[in-house]
Design brief:
Distance between the termini: 60 Å
Low-confidence stretches: none
Largest sheet: 11 strands, mixed
Helix content: 25-40%
Radius of gyration: 24 Å
Number of strands: 25
């Protein structure tokens, strides 16, 4: 990239917002972050070879051989610059964003599967893993930073991808990580309490989600869950074409549950029956979003319905394991009160009182403490036995987190609840308590293959633990 300053042309060899990654000839963007301010590292960036500084506030000390560009919003500028640096890759792709509290990973991943099965080269940006067609790239965040994001999109263009599906976190909207991207469509799943440690109020969290739809262009589509009380609110100010999906009322994509099972659901979409490999009402909503987006992107409706029946569950999302003793263990990523309720209700829909539900659940450390007692309360309300255990304690004491959860229980709830901080022992105990026909829900970690303790990630996979116990 070449930049011209007062008739002087500069060769820019790279861009970054992390001063530690600056090399000679780079452009450095000073972004005001949550934990640190990039403006404090301008000197370090120059020491490492930065020739151009983009910032909101000009530094007191300026060097004659360095060029300074002052902007109103450096986070927004970083997104625009990262996009231009990579040749505006989002404009060469059919890029669709999925946002909401729950369901983002499932919907984005299933759309990725759907379009690959349709013969298209497809990209995926998700919490679990990023994919450039069939090439897996480990994910570090739900939505990468603007530099990494545009680099991945550029690689997808280079690989010949036609469609890309990505999760849009509320953090990424507020932090302008998606600035400069052109979306073909946006999908809203649902909205419940989450990330209030960051957003502080539910209204701020909600508005962060809405801001994504506010920025969609007129040529895009905006597909929303009409049954969520915030579903239509999301589309109030969008220029995109408004589309809805629903189980409870008339919508562009109307679903109905015909027969629920633990291994799948027979449902109808716009009066057409389809047998799916997904359990629970919450997954019916996910499948409606997937089907709706597929049709809006141009897939034949009949072909989309057939493909929907071939899709399988995403790793760690209502993943079932059947024991030789006749009980079932379900591993799910549910880590919010609403997600727990959805999964537990899905189990009740199938069991219909013919078996007990044992829930193993914890809560993450150094995150929204307010949801801890609610999660315990909802677990106890919808389970026959509850085991409170460790999740990712991070820098907190697991027992303190468990006690925060325990505080949400009534006297009756306490009688069916036990505390076992060691997560492996908690899962083992649940298996010892289970009888034929019972269901164990192991909630909170899903696809994760680690436990984060005191800043260190230790290998730990709920699915591996379950299979190990079943074999012993």
């Amino acid at each position: 990239m070449k930049l011209t300053f007062a008739n002087q042309e500069l060769d820019i060899t790279g861009i970054h917002a992390d001063s530690r990654k600056i090399r000679p000839g780079y452009l450095f963007v000073a972004v005001k972050g949550v934990q640190s301010d990039g403006h404090d590292y301008i000197e370090k960036a120059i020491e490492n070879g930065a020739k151009v500084i983009v910032c909101q506030v000009l530094p007191d000390k300026q060097y004659p051989d360095v060029r300074y560009i002052q902007v109103a919003d450096s986070a927004e500028a970083l997104g625009e610059i990262a996009s231009l640096w990579n040749g505006e890759p989002s404009k060469k792709l059919q890029l669709v964003g999925v946002t909401g509290t729950n369901g983002k990973t499932t919907i984005a991943t299933l759309l990725y599967m759907m379009f690959r099965k349709s013969g298209y080269k497809t990209g995926l940006l998700s919490t679990v893993c990023n994919y450039i067609d069939d090439k897996a790239i480990p994910a570090t965040h739900t939505t990468p930073d603007a530099v990494e994001l545009n680099d991945l999109l550029a690689q997808m263009v280079e690989a010949g991808c036609d469609y890309v599906f990505m999760e849009i976190s509320s953090h990424s909207v507020v932090q302008k990580r998606i600035a400069g991207l052109q979306f073909k469509g946006g999908i809203f799943t649902n909205l419940t309490r989450d990330h209030l440690d960051y957003h502080l109020t539910f209204e701020d969290y909600r508005d962060a989600k809405k801001a994504f739809f506010d920025r969609l262009p007129a040529g895009a589509f905006a597909l929303t869950n009409k049954d969520d009380k915030n579903g239509l609110f999301m589309l109030q100010n969008t220029k995109a074409r408004k589309q809805t999906y629903s189980v409870l009322s008339l919508a562009d994509f109307k679903g109905k549950i015909l027969e629920p099972h633990l291994e799948g659901t027979l449902m109808s979409i716009n009066s057409r029956e389809v047998a799916t490999q997904f359990a629970g009402k919450f997954n019916v909503y996910n499948l409606l979003a997937v089907y709706g987006a597929s049709v809006l992107l141009g897939l034949n409706p009949d072909n989309a319905l057939v493909l929907l029946s071939t899709l399988h569950s995403v790793a760690g999302r209502f993943q079932t394991f059947r024991s030789l003793e006749g009980y079932t263990a379900i591993v799910d990523y549910a880590h919010t009160p609403d997600a727990l309720v959805n999964v537990l209700n899905a189990i009740h829909e199938v069991l219909r009182g013919q078996g007990n539900i044992i829930t193993v659940v914890g809560a993450g450390g150094n995150r929204d403490k307010g949801k801890r007692p609610i999660m315990a309360k909802e677990s106890a309300k919808l389970s026959d036995r509850v085991i409170l255990t460790s999740d990712n304690p991070r820098f907190e004491d697991p027992e303190d987190i468990i006690n925060d959860m325990f505080a949400g229980l009534t006297e009756e709830d306490v009688k069916k609840t036990i505390k076992i901080p060691d997560r492996k022992e908690a899962i083992r105990t649940a298996c010892m308590l289970a009888q034929a026909g019972d269901v164990i829900l192991i909630a909170g970690k899903g696809h994760e293959d680690y436990q984060e303790i005191k800043g260190v990630k230790h290998h730990f996979d709920d699915r591996e633990i379950v299979q190990e116990i079943f074999k012993s």
